[in-house]
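User: Just a sanity check before I run the rest of the batch. Below are the structure tokens for the first item. I only need the designed sequence back.
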């Protein structure tokens, strides 16, 4: 928040593999801190979206934007036609960004995105836009124009609208932020989301002790956390199993967690 407040950067990107705690951080740590600092916070998870990601992004921003104002913001209902050469282009035609054709990017989408971002920038409070799993927009042929429009709006209103992206795919983020012709090329500072340390393990061990009245070996717990590649969700699942079964056997519970992970990822069948 200090980085954003002093203007050192208006856009950040956090990378970590899945289940490392990025969403928990955005929702339960960063959002309260931003709201306490006077920001309106808009959180959008593209991972949860089914269907058109562009429309979902715009609709989510619009819905939150409307909730910030006493008078609901009226969306653009009449979509103007854009003159292209000798003819006109309606909302079903293709448009291009950076000279490249995109597949069925609606002109209405781009107009609505521009309007809602402008309206947010005119508000009395700064806005923090959190876009989770942004690499799902890496398909430039489909979403390139939309991402370009988003960058244009964020550049234009960077004093009022800050943004933090998260991603779990290094290749997807590379295509979005490091590829020369990508709309978000070198747009923001990229940060590696830090791994949880021993304080996280101690915290969950304390919770386990409160629930069961039993104390687990801290060194063995840390070893188990490392064996689970320090993925917070996996370690939490491990302790949940131990609570539910009344077990204090790390080795047995660890094996169960591994077996469940193998079933979920379907690795044996793939092999």
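Assistant: Here's the designed sequence for the first item:
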């Amino acid at each position: 928040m200090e980085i954003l407040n002093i203007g050192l950067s208006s856009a950040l990107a956090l990378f970590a593999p899945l289940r490392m705690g990025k969403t928990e951080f955005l929702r339960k740590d960063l959002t309260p801190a931003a709201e306490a600092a006077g920001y309106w916070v808009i959180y959008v998870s593209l991972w949860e979206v089914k269907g058109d990601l562009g429309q979902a992004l715009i609709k989510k921003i619009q819905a939150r934007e409307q909730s910030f104002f006493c008078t609901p913001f009226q969306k653009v209902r009449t979509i103007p036609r854009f003159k292209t050469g000798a003819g006109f282009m309606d909302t079903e035609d293709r448009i291009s960004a950076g000279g490249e054709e995109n597949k069925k990017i609606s002109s209405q989408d781009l107009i609505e995105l521009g309007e809602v971002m402008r309206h947010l920038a005119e508000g009395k409070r700064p806005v923090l836009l959190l876009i989770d799993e942004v690499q799902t927009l890496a398909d430039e042929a489909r979403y390139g124009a939309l991402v370009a429009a988003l960058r244009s709006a964020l550049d234009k209103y960077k004093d009022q609208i800050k943004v933090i992206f998260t991603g779990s795919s290094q290749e997807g983020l590379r295509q979005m932020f490091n590829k020369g012709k990508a709309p978000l090329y070198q747009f923001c500072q990229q940060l590696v989301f830090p791994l949880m340390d021993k304080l996280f393990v101690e915290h969950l061990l304390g919770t386990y002790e409160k629930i069961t009245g039993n104390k687990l070996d801290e060194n063995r717990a840390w070893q188990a956390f490392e064996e689970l590649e320090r993925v917070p969700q996996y370690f939490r699942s491990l302790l949940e199993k131990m609570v539910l079964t009344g077990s204090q056997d790390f080795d047995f519970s660890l094996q169960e967690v591994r077996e469940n992970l193998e079933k979920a990822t379907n690795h044996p069948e793939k092999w």
